[in-house]
Amino acid sequence: MTALNPAALGTVRHDWTLAQVQALLELPLLDLLLHAQRVHREHHAPNTVQMSTLLSVKTGACPEDCAYCSQSVRYETGLERESLMEVAAVRESAARAKAAGATRFCMGAAYRSPKAKDLKVIAAMIREVRALGMETCATLGMLTPEQARELKDAGLDYYNHNLDTSPEFYGEIITTRTYQDRLDTLDAVRAANLKVCCGGILGLGESPSDRAGLLLTLANLPEHPESVPINQLVKIEGTPLADSAPLDPFEFVRAIAVARLLMPRSYVRLSAGRQGMSDELQALCFMAGANSIFYGERLLTTGNPDVERDRRLFERLGLKPEAGAAETDGAAAGHACAHPRAHAETAA
Q1: Residues with catalytic roles
Q2: Can you give the pTM of this predicted structure?
Q3: Segment 84-102, tens digit of pLDDT
Q4: Which residues make Cβ contacts (< 8 Å) with residue 7, sequence separation at least 6?
């Protein structure tokens, strides 16, 4: 798309080229924000943000080597391993999250892929959270088609499985599972009629072309993810990426805006790394089309802006939480849920 046609932006399509995505990322920032906010308002209620809460239901001891992840057994990060939580404790956490304003409850577990006996316990967690009137999301690593159907039968609404980065850069970040493994899990999730939460992480040392490649891959999936989490790397001491160069904040905003333009009906989640963002940067992200956040004091293994800070920010910006499925007929979409073994909520 060397010649940009602003009127065509906002059309749902799955045939983007890398050159077109790069052209969007290279637009003057204010022009890009203008286009993104216009498209956002064509498909979503303005000044409204969907709220999710993320709980790590099984922490640490992941055998994979994701270079950003505090939960990998391969790195000394000081993280204490925790076995799978009791169902009653998860229900209590979900009830607290609902009382604080969350409409979706996301459960993350540090697995390469879940074992059958653990999946039965997680299915019981899903049923309990659904009984509270909340939407449910899980991120448990790779799934077989049979496992995806078991989660669907338990009442799961969303499954989170991030691509992390572009196909070309992926091997620099993870070697223990392939890009195709991730795409196969997404296929299994779709075949089970589950909604998809799928995004990536910025600040891994990727090039601008890699950021374009990630967004291109997401936008050209057969169906756009209902929720697209855009994570900023949270640097964890002991991981290979602990000393990564910081990402230019405006590059992060650009990625949010282009995600909105490429996937106009999806919820775009401002995800990991939000604790380190200023209120002004978050405001730019909302202007760029982000309309979902994780809400609460922790994500999987790292901090998150506390509830009161978010409430104050929403009040200053005139934003309001989106009503949940329990209060409206339309279910909110999108969990950027995170990578079960990630720093915050990068996706599995």
Answers
A1: 62, 66, 69, 106, 137, 197, 269
A2: 0.85
A3: 888 999 999 888 888 877 8
A4: none
